[in-house]
Design brief:
The protein is an alpha/beta fold and 238 residues long. It is 40% helix and 20% strand. Strand 2, helix 6 (103-116) and strand 3 (121-124) form a beta-alpha-beta unit. Helix 1 (3-13) runs parallel beside helix 3 (47-58) and helix 8 (151-158) runs parallel beside helix 9 (176-189). It is globular and about 45 Å long. Bound molecules: S-adenosylmethionine. S-adenosylmethionine is lined by residues 77-80, 82, 99-102, 105, 126-128, 146-148, 157.
Length: 238
């Protein structure tokens, strides 16, 4: 791992990282390499790009003050742990739940958590099913989600997890404007209200135009949502 690039990038974003955090990032990269050598876990990226695309990009909500200390957070569709693992490494006091529909990815997260000596909850389930479980429905302060679905689908996959007053943070690109009208309508039906789109630049990558779509949970999600597994993707609400 290019430690200097990560340290400089975090500093430019105004995010503090102590020695333990840097050691954990290094160890996490090594575990990713180990798994990627024997299974198709995540795209294999060149070292610098991995720091930028995975670690720095994942840290964006911390630069915006979107996750309070001790917040209960669910990473919906975490894959190989993004954005949840960098967020937890940087703020180990977050009460993080890693959710993914694929068992092999959850198995990887469990192994990584144990080797990094971090504690978190892991959940092998579809978001549509998990959000109907009493222990997960409307229990979270924040839901984070990157590269999982279009914004209207994502509203249905994340807002049911949030308590009223919670916030959904979705990583998006320059095409977000086209998704906004649908996202606003879907969020309204689910008890949410789109707060806005925040620029989330990755240092040194001015061409990426990454943004965070931030939605507040303003009222309870009606019992009808989320609809059965698969429908939010096939027939987005708006
Ligand atoms: N968030 C990671 C990232 O940015 O690298 C992974 C992105 S990957 C393209 C999408 C992940 O979302 C996959 O691991 C997939 O299994 C998961 N996923 C998609 N739909 C889901 C659902 N309805 N419930 C749970 N996981 C889902």
């Amino acid at each position: 791992m290019n430690r200097e690039r990560l340290a400089n990038g975090l500093e430019a974003m105004g995010i503090a990282a102590d020695r333990r955090a840097m050691e954990r990032f290094e160890a996490f990269h090594a575990i990713l390499d180990e798994y990627n050598a024997r299974m198709d876990l995540t795209a294999v990226l060149e070292e610098d790009e991995r720091v930028d695309r995975h670690d720095l990009d994942s840290a964006a909500p911390l630069a915006k003050g979107l996750l309070a200390g001790g917040a209960k957070v669910i990473d919906v569709g975490t894959g190989a742990g993004f954005p949840g693992m960098p967020l937890l490494i940087l703020k180990p006091d977050l009460r993080m739940t890693f959710l993914d529909a694929q068992q092999k990815r959850i198995g990887f997260i469990e192994d990584a958590l144990s080797r990094l000596e971090l504690s978190a909850v892991t959940l092998h389930a579809r978001a549509e099913d998990a959000a109907r479980m009493a222990e997960h429905r409307e229990q979270y302060d924040a839901a984070v989600s990157r590269a999982v679905a279009g914004a209207a689908t994502l509203a249905e996959l994340t807002l049911p997890f949030l308590r009223v007053g919670g916030v959904s943070v979705a990583w998006k690109g320059p095409g977000v404007a086209e998704e906004l009208t649908h996202a606003k309508r879907a969020s309204f039906l689910l008890g949410g209200c789109v707060r806005g789109v925040l620029p989330a630049p990755v240092p040194g990558r001015d061409d990426w135009q990454h943004v965070l779509l931030v939605t507040d949970k303003t009222g309870k999600t009606p019992k009808a949502y989320p609809r059965r597994a698969g429908l939010p993707g096939k027939k987005p609400l708006a």
